[in-house]
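does this look right to u?? magnesium ion version
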Amino acid sequence: MGEMIQNTEHRTQSTEKKAIATRDAYGEALLELGEKRKDVVVLDADLSGSTKTGKFAAAFPERFYNIGVSEQDMVGTASGLSLTGKLPFASTFAIFETGRAWEQIRQTVCYSNLNVKLVATHSGISVGEDGASHQAIEDIALMRVLPNMTVVVPADGAETKQVIEAIADYYGPVYVRLGRAKVPNVMPEDYKFAIARAHIFNTGKDANIIATGIMVSVSLEAAEILRSEGIDVGVINMSTIKPLDSGALLKAAQSSRLIVTAEEHSIIGGLGGAVCEFLAENHPMPVKRIGIRDTFGCSGTPDELMKLYGLTSDDIVKTIIQCQ
Amino acid sequence: MNPATAYRDINFLREKAKAVRVEILKMLAEAGSGHTGGSLSATDIATAIYFYKLKHKPEDPGWRERDRFILSKGHAAPLLYAVLALSGYFDVSLLKTLRKLGSPLQGHPSSKSLPGVEVSTGSLGQGLSIANGIAIGLKMDGLDSRVYCLLGDGEIQEGQVWEAAMTAAHYRLDNMCAMVDLNGLQIDGPVSEVKGIEPVDMKWKAFGWHVIDIDGNDMDAIVKALDAAESVKGKPTVILARTLKGKGVSFFEGKVKYHGIAPTQEELRRALKELE
Ligand SMILES: Cc1ncc(C[n+]2csc(CCOP(=O)(O)OP(=O)(O)O)c2C)c(N)n1
Ligand SMILES: [Mg+2]
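got this back:
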């Protein structure tokens, strides 16, 4: 699995580094965080092998709580732990975390503004063979609409590790969206993640792609192809979707004729939605959204699905060429 | 301990309960809306918790070693506000701002606006999970503080309650004491008609809880049950408190209708007379 992503040979400085899934990076980051901070408590809902919280569980069994297949209860229990000053990380698959427990997240975590970290894996269609029931394509929308919530979607393993460290030092509810498939390292060696700060790889006059998650790597590839054809395209990694880095977005908007958003999520309510909302009010201009077009996923290899749903670099290239 | 909250005897608690009922009725009548029946049915329980059992410091709501009370049935907010005010968390005069614009006394409890409210509630079925998390956290910190969580009998139709019931038993949360206000009524009618919960004691037992079944409007029984709960080790305790909805005001008692409506000024006058 994860072939598509391993095949993407865009030429950033760090391409040679081993591709890992963001969920694997999470497992490692939790372990390191657990070592450093004794207040870290981890909860899972019977998916600790897949979400990689199992590593933390093995190292710190006294600070790991398996709540079983009960996501609503997991979120509630994490909330209670935060009320005693603990730093809970609650993990399961993205659709169960944000879908099943949405109202618990709203009523308890967000309304009371609790220091609960919701870190979900298996987002998007790159989940692959498990099919639509397990492919969250609505989770960004579900979390973004909540007051007090911060939403972060790391682009690679290294960024994921930084995200976990950063949110541990930040007080308040955070949703982190991770994936199952391996992603190449795309962020530069000296990159430093900060909440609400986008990373501008470069800006282009003809189009700027605002991407998030695994679509950052795909977008970099597309930009390279376009540049070789004389079309000047920039790429921005919008890893924090809420709060949106409006400064970076405005800069990208002002410097080009077209904004393209790219996400492994529904085009409704996610990154594309957030960007359109901002631009419509602040800098009206043409926008194209790359994402899942109001339909469910299905079974297949991640590679096949990325093609089927129009999430490849070719799809981005075609979209941008059509607009020139 | 705050002198206002110092326990003296059962009669002291009965008098307190009366004072709590008076405040509930007054604030509801002033607000013109809110939940009367379920606030009155659980008044004796909440009074015993706040004025007999709870280890707390109203002048220091964030005190680390305090016991916690979670009002899972958040619509009984007037009850919570009355016991908090009479315990000294804030001035009793604030009660008349219930449900008004800008008031910290929101229609359902909001922990962001009012000290003493541990967590925001109002959406039924969520409190027991939160209480479990607190109970686990207290144990991790080596504190012997206890957690009390009040639920409604309609509320326990929520699936999450039973998820949480399993969690508390699995993790042997003997610092947890849940209380179910078995007033037999919910919004659309008697619980037995809407969707029956019996045999409710067997359900909790089957879920691994120690069960204490009492008359939930009998102060003596409540005090004894709270004491007994404390000595149960290795498992959580639930107090099944059989109550009368609207307790204390004859024309509200046992009436489905008075779940979610406030007394009129005329009803308030008659109610206060009865309570005298
Ligand atoms: C999740 C949720 N669904 C519905 C409601 C609306 N509601 C408020 S009170 C209530 C009935 C509760 O009955 P019960 O738990 O028996 O409360 P009590 O009789 O103690 O007032 C309902 C359905 C709610 N607050 N939360
Ligand atoms: Mg009831």
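Chain A has two domains: 9-16+187-322, 20-183. idk if thats expected tbh
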